[in-house]
Specification:
The protein has a two-stranded antiparallel sheet. It has a single domain, classed as Farnesyl Diphosphate Synthase, CATH 1.10.600. The chain contains 17 helices and two strands. About 75% of the residues lie in helices and about 0% in strands. The mean pLDDT is about 90. The protein is globular. Strand 1 and strand 2 form a beta hairpin. By secondary structure, the chain is an all-alpha fold. Belongs to the FPP/GGPP synthase family.
Amino acid sequence: MMKSINEMFEPINKELIQLSKNLQKMIVAEHPILYAAAEQLFNAKGKRIRPAIILLIAEITKSKKTIINEQRRLAEITEIIHTASLVHDDVIDECETRRGIETVHNIFNNKIAILAGDFLFAQSSWYLANLNNLDVVKNISKVITDFAEGEVRQGVKYFDTTISIEEYIEKSFYKTASLIASSSKATTILNNCCTNTQNDFYIYGKHIGLAFQIIDDILDVISSSNDIGKPSGLDLKNGNLTAPLIFALEEKPELYKLINQEFHGNSNINEAIKIIKNTRAIQKSKDLAEEHVQLATFILHKKYPKKDTKHLLNISYYILNRAN
């Protein structure tokens, strides 16, 4: 039986509750519109998967399973960076809802939304610098560059039927996995872990991040808007060819015509979704996500068998089961 989020986060539930309170205090803006826009981002509460991973790794890699203040702050910084990237994504994707509520640009406008995202990136950079750890700063600051790289890679491939699974995975790393990988490594740096341990958890975070993105892309095809808290089929509408569509193209050449027409109208999007569902593309995409979860959990089983990694393992399996 799949554990609930609260059960998986049991050792760090108090930490996550405090994290949510701290995030509100950390976002300080003098202009009321900018503050309202930034605050709106945190009203749409997510599951806090990223900070949970950071805090659990912090416990695993410390002999006394203690979490230091710098690691708590790192978890908060990571959530701010992630949230900033979402508001920019929503503008680019013209997404009207996120986690079931209106997006910032829908409530205000695109300019305010972009400024709110920039403001959050700036706030996260300030808090990051105040950790006073140059190696952590180098690791996390690279993520913001990766976000831009991912968006550009995605943008130049809109409605491009030549995109390969390898290119899709590379883009997914920049857009999603880079943050989880780098923050997983950063929390081990704060524990003064050796280079091998730092690299182990970077690779762990990378594969968990890739699996998370693949499952997200599956849900965009198979779930309703109510289930995922944002419009379904949004990737198709925006010409973002993800794993399910790339795999479906191998079986159903008629999809090429719909893509070349840029899915004009909801009927074409619905038709494409129906075609994808009638192929092995969803299962192939799930298999791809499972491969990455297996690569991540292999590190925990192989290198840290004596550590209490069950909660990290449960998060890995939870990510996979989101699409079941």
